[in-house]
Amino acid sequence: MIQGLFFYIFAAVLLGSAVMVIASRNPVHAVLFLILAFCNAAGLFLLCGAEFLALVTVIVYVGAVAVLFLFVVMMLDIDPAHLRVGLKRHLPLGGAVGAVLIAELILMAREWRFAEGAPLDGRAPAPDPSALTNTEALGRLIYTDYVLAFQTAGLILLVAMVGAILLTLRTRPGVRRQDISAQLARNKANSVDMVRLSGPEGQP
Fold first, then answer.
1. Model pLDDT for residues 124-134, shown as the tens digit of each residue
2. Contact 3, 47 (CB under 8 A)
3. What is the pTM of this model?
């Protein structure tokens, strides 16, 4: 009874904090809600008996990734109103890219086929739990039963990384930038000047 009560508490707070991450207009508040979501996810892992996942979530995501996001957002001083500038102009291109990605996912789902001789439920044969370590059993589950969810999480992280790069990209006039093609096109004729120096009495 107590375990079920804690499960519903952790799940409700996790869902509420996840919604607030998207709905918060202040980026700092969004990161704080993200940290709260990670902590409640760690609590759910503990209730399920996955102590390794709970510790990894707290140490890696809460202790490193989310805190790093928080410091980066605080140092950048992002203006929410500035982020909406040009939204209507880039909306058609973003919608087209999103439509292409959705179409690719639909085509991939339609062409998904199980190999001959595979179990009907699509699951790999369960090994002996006594012969596996916790990490090895976790790896087998991620790359067999939950490989689609794992790849989806990787795609979400890729989109988040591209968004972080776009947020931090600044165009500053007057800054000298490296031109690789111009460097490779240089030769002796346009790179070295031969200068004849004269001595004190005009002698070379």
1. 555 565 666 76
2. yes
3. 0.47
